[in-house]
Design goal:
Chain lengths: 350, 487
């Protein structure tokens, strides 16, 4: 019995790895069918992500930072049963706030300006998530819908900002002025890798400890698993858990927007995010909502995206084909979950 | 006339567990046949096979003299079978007529469906008003609708899986009476149950399953509750009810006091609670007798602090432990371990919670001790709650409830879905708790079980508390449950 349970646990851990293998295999197959050389294309993909120190430090890791940061927040929300589909919008809210505040802090010492910028980004993401919280708790509007729709509002907000209040001084391009040096995150010299990575990794460890060892973390998980039982048996205030989880999730996404503006782009413009808020949902799901696994899965998705541009350059394969791999990975993970549930169900029926 | 349904040599295994080992079962045309057995004896599995929901590894299914190969329930329906499941299968947002139309596969206008539903209801004795939405109906009416739906699909053989388990005693009796009347229409029925009284009251014949084999099959005439219980348990039956009267001087201080408490209803069809005044003493075991939807849900939850009174005052000495009726929906984290479920039930006051931290090692060790102390059959503290049988889940919940050293224990239908042995054990735990000085308030839908267990009974009718004088008879209490106090 224990041997079988142990085997099952291992199968559970390996399922995401198998899903990734299946995703890459399907990608290779798709390339073959479309008439490309899979070896050449996948080789370029690998080199684009891991081929050189520069690829790792300036292409892979900077892309991983927003994916991991947002993915941690989404994992937090999903585990507590709050389905936040609005990370993209919360990311933009954070980016707008970081830009706005950052542009005002030109003369400030960096040690003060950077934390203020990041705090503003976090607060903006939280604020952007607070409307869905209110709608859900007060009027029963499902957060899946409200957070999703607010993404479009946020994109429109950015579009207006970069042609209005935050447009660069000459009023020519639809983007903001560059952030003053004081408001920029410290970076590894000669690379695009900034301090956001360390903060994201720290957050991952803290979240892992929170869920594994703290009573509130357990109450979050219990609420996500069965909110009625959490309330009836555990006396958990599940409405508060919902609000905290969704709010914190928005905060993480907003913080990622702050990282992006003050660490990578140094300015606000439209399509600042290549869909980080949506890809991060995949990141969190592949990690089975586990904070430490989110780091690994964020790196994987960043590698796919970083490698895809190299693939386009070297093998003339359109970068979007990596979406095939991403989609297959997620479908495979979800299928393995369904499969596991069905098996668990069969055991109960016996 | 050939038998309505014959099952021959049915074998079924789930993994390494043998659910059915060569079961023969015959339903004669026009009879009501009770299928008895403890939980896990294989009753539901056998009927799911007959209905095409499961496939046996070996065995034959013969329907009205013809050998049948059932690939799915659709095949079974075409051959005249209908199944009424333990849980309601109607669509709450649809009206009664729409649900019947859907189940019967009728191709007609909605107006015609309403008329046909009404006609079918009147001719079969299962009349249900076609107009209301199903979500607004009471449990008793919903269950009648389930039968009506099967009849709408022209079922001649009805398989009913514990149809009275979600009903109050009067509603259940009413349903069974109507079931017998269906015989006049040539409908044969199988009634899955573990209530001996039901089988004795309405069945023509009875088959008893034990551990996946037929322990008895024959006419009901000549059987008694004792003889059937012996067939089910395979040993001298444990008494169904245990009574340990508490001496009056053991009753101490008042641990629950409600003063004119009014609570709005928690779900459609319920009555809420109106001006409820009651007292529960330490060491007292009080039974709550009520037909479903008369305010017991609200009463339990307002004492447990889960519902807010609109008026009145609620005083309850903590800790208050509450065992809700629906284990899987309201009490358990099915995907979580037993340890995690225990930690949840202790609400952060346990010795293994230090500040904001949970010491999982200590919690796990305590869970292991409780598993042994309460005789829970589980592979270990790490097993998921969902993998346990209903009886073992309930043992774990009671262990958790008592672990809090409660002053008040609220048990809402705590024997629901349990077999006789597990139910008797639950009742013994409750009366032990009362003897140890806990104020226990318990609701059981079965009035006889309730009366056998408790020191004192209160009746809830239409959301109002009716005190019952000591020595009041069963009939009088039953009348109060149904009609309230005469003016």
């Amino acid at each position: 019995m224990t041997a079988r349970a142990g085997a099952r646990r291992w199968a559970l851990r390996l399922a995401p790895v198998a899903a990734v293998a299946v995703g890459i295999a399907v990608l290779a197959l798709a390339l073959l069918v479309a008439g490309y050389d899979p070896g050449l294309a996948l080789g370029a993909l690998w080199r684009g992500a891991f081929g050189s120190t520069d690829a790792v430090l300036s292409a892979l890791l900077p892309r991983a930072i927003p994916l991991i940061t947002i993915g941690l927040g989404i994992g937090l929300a999903f585990r507590a049963g709050a389905l936040n589909i609005g990370a993209e919008g919360q990311f933009y809210a954070g980016a707008v706030a970081a830009t706005w505040i950052g542009l005002l802090l030109g003369g400030w010492p960096r040690l003060v300006a950077v934390p203020v910028v990041l705090a503003a980004a976090l607060a903006a993401g939280l604020a952007w998530a607070s409307l869905p919280i209110l709608l859900r708790l007060r009027f029963g509007v499902l957060e899946v819908i409200s957070t999703l729709l607010l993404n479009f509002v946020a994109e429109a907000l950015v579009s207006w900002m970069v042609q209005g209040p935050l447009q660069e001084s000459r009023h020519v391009y639809p983007q903001s002025d560059p952030l003053p040096l004081a408001a920029r995150l410290p970076a590894l010299p000669g690379t695009r890798l900034h301090l956001g990575l360390a903060l994201a990794l720290g957050a991952a460890v803290l979240l892992w400890v929170f869920f594994r060892y703290s009573l509130p973390g357990f109450q979050f998980r219990a609420t996500g698993s069965n909110p009625v039982a959490a309330r009836v048996m555990g006396g958990v205030n599940t409405r508060r858990v919902f609000a905290l989880a969704l709010g914190a999730s928005g905060g993480f996404a907003g913080l990622a927007g702050g990282f992006e503006v003050s660490g990578t782009s140094f300015a606000l413009f439209q399509s600042l995010s290549p869909g980080y808020g949506f890809t991060a949902i995949a990141v969190a799901l592949l990690a089975r909502l586990d904070p430490l696994a989110t780091v690994a899965s964020g790196l994987l998705f960043a590698a796919l995206e970083a490698g895809s541009s190299a693939m386009q350059r070297e093998a003339q394969v359109p970068a979007v084909v990596v979406w095939v791999a991403e989609a297959v990975i997620i479908i495979a993970v979800l299928l393995s979950d369904t499969w596991r549930r069905r098996r668990a169900h069969a055991v109960v029926e016996a | 006339m050939p038998p309505a349904l014959e099952l021959r040599g049915i074998h079924k295994t789930f993994g390494s567990v043998t659910a059915l080992a060569g079961v023969d079962f015959t339903l004669e045309a026009g009879e009501v046949h009770a299928l008895l057995g403890e939980n896990g004896a294989g009753k539901t599995t056998l009927m799911r096979i007959a209905f095409g929901l499961l496939r046996p590894e070996a065995g034959r299914i013969v329907i009205e003299g013809e050998q049948a190969a059932l690939r799915d329930p659709g095949d079974a329906r075409r051959l005249g079978l209908g199944m009424v499941h333990q849980h309601f299968t109607s669509i709450p947002a649809f009206t009664v007529a729409e649900n019947v139309m859907l189940a019967g596969g009728w191709r007609c206008s909605l107006a015609e469906a309403v008329a046909r539903t009404r006609r079918l209801g009147e001719s079969s004795g299962f009349a249900v008003d076609p107009a209301p939405r199903v979500g607004d109906l009471s449990a008793g009416v919903k269950q009648r609708l389930e039968v009506l739906k099967a009849l709408a699909a022209d079922a001649r053989i009805l398989l009913l899986d514990e149809p009275t388990s979600v009903l109050s005693p009067p509603d259940g009796e009413e349903l069974l009476r109507q079931l017998r009347q269906l015989k006049a229409r040539g409908v044969s029925s199988v009634l899955i149950t573990h209530k001996l009284r039901e089988a004795l009251a309405i069945a023509d014949r009875v088959t008893v399953l034990r551990h996946g084999r037929v322990a008895f099959s024959g006419p009901v005439a000549g059987q008694t509750a004792e003889s059937l219980a012996t067939h089910m348990l395979g040993e001298p039956a444990v008494p169904v009810t245990i009574r340990q009267p508490v001496p009056a001087d053991a009753r101490g201080e008042v641990v629950v006091r409600l003063e004119a408490v009014t609570v709005s209803r928690l779900d459609a069809g319920g009555s809420g609670l109106t001006d409820a005044t009651l007292r529960l003493g330490a060491g007292e075991l009080v039974g709550l007798a009520a037909v479903e939807g008369n305010g017991q849900r609200e009463l339990f939850r307002v004492i447990a602090g889960l519902a807010v009174p609109m008026r009145g005052a609620v005083h309850a000495q903590g800790p208050v432990s509450f065992i809700p009726e629906d284990r899987t929906a309201e009490a358990l984290l099915e995907e979580f371990s037993l340890t995690e479920n225990l930690v949840l039930s202790q609400r952060g006051t346990a010795p293994w919670v230090r500040g904001p931290w949970v010491r999982w090692g200590e919690a796990g060790a305590r869970t292991t001790e409780l598993i042994a102390a309460f005789g829970v059959r589980a592979p270990g503290a790490g097993a998921t709650a969902g993998s346990l049988s209903g009886g073992n889940q309930q043992r774990m919940l009671i262990a958790g409830a008592l672990e809090r050293r409660p002053r008040v224990l609220l048990a809402e239908n705590p024997t629901r879905g349990l077999d006789l042995k597990a139910a008797a054990e639950v009742m013994r735990r409750l009366s032990d708790a009362a003897r140890d000085g806990v104020g226990v308030l318990v609701h059981l839908p079965d009035l006889d079980e309730l009366l056998g267990l408790v020191d004192r009974v209160i009746v809830l009718y239409g959301g109002r508390v009716l005190e019952v004088a000591p020595g009041t008879g069963r009939e009088e209490i039953g009348r109060l449950m149904l009609e309230g106090r005469r003016p």
